[in-house]
Amino acid sequence: MALTDALSCQHQAFEGHPRIVSLVPSLTELICDLGLAEYLVGRTGFCVHPKEILRRIPKVGGTKDIKLDVIQSLAPTHVIADIDENRREPVEAMMAFVPHVVVVHPRTVDDNLALYALLGGIFCRENESARLASAFADARNNLAAMAAALPRESVLYPIWREPWMTIRRDTYIASMLGAGGWDTLPTEASVRYPEFTFAEPWLDDIQRVLLPSEPYAFSDRDATELHAQTQRPVIRVDGEMLSWYGSRAIAGLNYLAELRGQRTGAAE
């Protein structure tokens, strides 16, 4: 099986003991769930799961403000990065001193299967990868059955305010929600994370607002404002469950099935 990343770079199974730096929170969690925690030598300050394991792992900055000198001092064999999460310039700079830079870009829920296979193949964790794939399939099928029994709904999923921002349909979050029968609006936008105002005509078509816990720390006041402006129910949701890919996607699919099955009225 070809081990090809999002930049079309070919990778080989690594024999020996890797030294891994992960620049993405969900990938750090996945590395640990593949049984590779002992080989993790660096992570960002936003990589917080699994908490107990990561206490001992040095930080290399944030997902955007990566400290190249710190990474170089750790002498990694592999750096794991993401096109959306990390800036292009520092990732390209690392290619000069890191033997293997693996770049991923999951954009749909089912891209998780290729992600498990890619990292499982590179780090010789095929059994662990297959276990995750099986659990993912079970959760995916369970959610599909739940969604098929319920009417589809159009939703607003804000990710920021000042300015207010949301997500386009071709994002991972939109795919995740779509798997559960929630279709994000707007349907078209020139950028993947468009700004919006409450005068947008497409807001008339939403059935509810899903207000995530991240990346913006929305307050109860924000929820009240959204309810007043849209006149739609507002549901507070766990942003990690809906936006983190990798092994967290399995829990996220189960979370979404439970959430989708609930009947929610006014703002929560």
Describe the structure.
With 268 residues, the chain is an alpha/beta fold. It has two domains: 3-131, Rossmann fold, CATH 3.40.50.1980; 149-261, Nitrogenase molybdenum iron protein domain (Rossmann fold, 3-Layer(aba) Sandwich). It contains ten helices and ten strands. The chain has helices at 25-33, 51-54, 68-74, 88-94, 111-122, 126-148, 172-179, 220-230, 239-243, 248-261, and strands spanning 3-4, 10-11, 20-22, 40-43, 78-82, 100-104, 153-156, 182-184, 208-212, 234-237. The strands form three sheets. A four-stranded parallel β-sheet has the order 4-3-5-6, covered by helices on one side. A hairpin with a 5-residue loop joins strand 1 and strand 2 (10-11). Helix 5 (111-122) packs antiparallel against helix 6 and helix 6 (126-148) packs parallel to helix 10 (248-261). The longest helix has 23 residues, at 126-148. 36% of the residues are buried.
Order of helices and strands: EEEHEHHEHEHHEHEEHEHH
Structural class: alpha/beta
CATH superfamily of the largest domain: Nitrogenase molybdenum iron protein domain
Strand percentage lies at: 5-15%
Main sheet record? 4 strands, parallel
Number of separate strands:
10
Total number of domains: 2
Widest sheet: strand ordering: 4-3-5-6
